[in-house]
Write a structure and sequence with these properties.
This protein is α/β, with parallel strands linked by helices. It has a six-stranded mixed β-sheet, sandwiched between helices. Strands 2-1-4-5 form a four-stranded antiparallel β-sheet, with helices on one face. Helices cover 35% and strands 22% of the residues. It contains 16 helices and 17 strands. The protein starts with a strand and ends in a 15-residue tail after the last helix. Helix 5 packs across helix 7 and helix 15 runs antiparallel to helix 16. The radius of gyration is 27 Å and the shape is elongated. Strand 11, helix 13 and strand 12 form a beta-alpha-beta unit. The chain folds into two domains: 238 residues, P-loop containing nucleotide triphosphate hydrolases (Rossmann fold), CATH 3.40.50.300; 130 residues, Roll (CBS-domain), CATH 3.10.580. It binds adenosine-5'-triphosphate. Adenosine-5'-triphosphate binds next to helix 1. The site of adenosine-5'-triphosphate has 13 residues, from helix 1. Pfam families: ABC_tran. One of its GO terms (molecular function) is ATP binding. This is Betaine/proline/choline family ABC transporter ATP-binding protein.
Length: 414
């Protein structure tokens, strides 16, 4: 969709802002350009809509060399959002949003209807905000109007230059989430400039990490964090990149442990015998529909008085013995698992980031959490498995192979 070929920009004073840049962005991809101040991110972006002309090299948009396209016509195909927003102060929010459709010659009625639709899309009710003026909005609301205005003519490409840079971190995270939600339905091709690595990681399908005028690494967030290509990138993404990777590494089925599973209506003595045979200290309990109910310990099933919540609390691993576990004892006759089971609310969907898994474990003070596909129970994640998943994903990303192909024994200390 966007292709840079050996693009260089040298300003009149001799500054080389961008040096022999080549990269390609696929249709529907969101690329974040990240790097320190003055490294050439904005220059890169402004060359796409011809606010800046390259000194040499070519840029293609959807196969067309942009130097052959009239800049005004080109900019109709490209939405542009900047940090200062640049709303017209004397125009209402609705009229600001309708600016581009208006310029394109749409009727006033049609342009305003489209503007109202877009304000709704970015979470600003047109009935409340449409007639306000920009100075009657918060910073975050102004940014939303900026996004709505850029989307008004439905351009296939969006250029966003630190669009959420001027708002506080809480509002920024909110705007980022909203934008991701929008992008998941709109699938625009986006170049997004930021100097914030957290923002770049959170938003980008791929990240271009800039050094002075050059791209040092252009890859997925997980790979940039897990396998920085150069010492410069490693330093830029930060010493805590392992932590950051938790946000971009999803839970996969291969990460899960499979403790024994019993049903609520199973006879307790049979469940106890099963755990004894397996040498397992506890089992996951599912209801009749296969949905997660909770867990039951071998000790509880066998009527041990010291049966405790140990199976679900911190430190308990599906393979480790729960305190109080007693094997070989007989369960009370005539009861079902239901009478002994405990509820367990800590679960997360397959594909959720490891960070969410870790946070759920901490929140529930749990040594394991169930992983579900819809309602279906798939297995459990333990702290040990979470650590292994992180290490395997790092190896997998560095070697560019699926995580499932990295054997656990290739991961020391997992
Ligand atoms: N009109 C200009 N004339 C001369 N040098 C310029 C001009 N515009 C930008 N530069 C220089 O080009 C380099 C790249 O600037 P650019 O604005 O692309 O950086 P950036 O990565 O977007 O920085 P920031 O994050 O601070 O916005 C800088 O050294 C800057 O000083």
């Amino acid at each position: 969709m966007i292709r840079f070929e050996h693009v260089t920009k040298r300003y009149a004073d001799g500054t080389t802002a961008v040096d022999d840049l080549s990269f390609e962005v696929a249709k529907g991809e969101l690329i974040t350009l990240v790097g320190p101040s003055g490294c050439g991110k904005t220059t890169t972006m402004k060359m796409v809509n011809r606010l800046i002309e390259p000194t040499s090299g070519t840029i293609h948009l959807d196969g067309d060399d942009i130097s052959a396209i009239d800049p005004v016509e080109l900019r109709r195909r490209i939405g542009y959002v900047i940090q200062q927003v640049g709303l017209f102060p004397h125009k209402t929010v609705l009229d600001n949003t309708a600016t581009v459709p208006h310029l394109l010659g749409w009727t006033r009625k049609k342009a305003r209807a489209r503007a109202a639709e877009l304000l709704d899309l970015v979470g600003l009710a047109p009935s409340t905000y449409g007639d306000r003026y920009p100075d009657q909005l918060s910073g975050g609301q102004r940014q939303r109007v900026g996004v709505a205005r850029a989307l008004a003519a439905d351009p296939p490409v969006l250029l966003m230059d630190e669009p959420f840079g001027a708002v506080d971190p809480v509002v920024r995270e909110h705007l980022q989430n909203e934008f991701l939600r929008l992008q998941s339905t709109l699938h625009k091709t986006v170049l997004f400039v930021t100097h914030d690595i957290e923002e770049a990681v959170r938003l980008g399908d791929r990240i271009a990490v800039y050094g002075a005028g050059r791209i040092e690494q252009f890859d997925t967030p997980a790979t940039v964090l897990g396998a920085p290509a150069t010492p410069y990138t490693a330093e830029f993404v930060g010493a805590d990149r392992g932590l950051k990777r938790l946000s971009v590494t999803p839970v996969e089925t291969g990460d899960l442990e499979q403790p024994p599973v019993v049903r609520l209506d199973d006879p307790a003595d049979r469940a106890a015998a099963r755990l004894t045979a397996d040498g397992a200290p506890w089992a996951v309990v599912l209801d009749a529909d296969g949905a997660i109910h909770g867990w039951v310990s071998a000790a509880t099933l066998s009527g041990s008085p010291e049966a405790s919540a140990a199976g679900a609390t911190a430190g308990a691993d599906a393979r480790s013995a729960a305190p109080g576990a007693r094997t070989g004892a007989s369960a009370p006759k005539g009861t079902t698992v239901r009478a002994h089971a405990r509820r367990m609310d800590a679960w997360l969907p397959l594909g959720a980031p490891l960070k969410q898994a870790f946070s759920t474990m901490l929140q529930h003070d749990a040594g394991w959490i169930a992983v579900l596909d819809g309602e279906r129970f798939l297995g459990v994640l333990t702290p040990g498995r979470l650590h292994a998943a992180l290490r395997r994903s790092t190896t997998a990303d560095a070697a560019n192979i699926p995580r499932g192909e990295v054997a656990l024994d290739r991961v020391p200390d997992a």
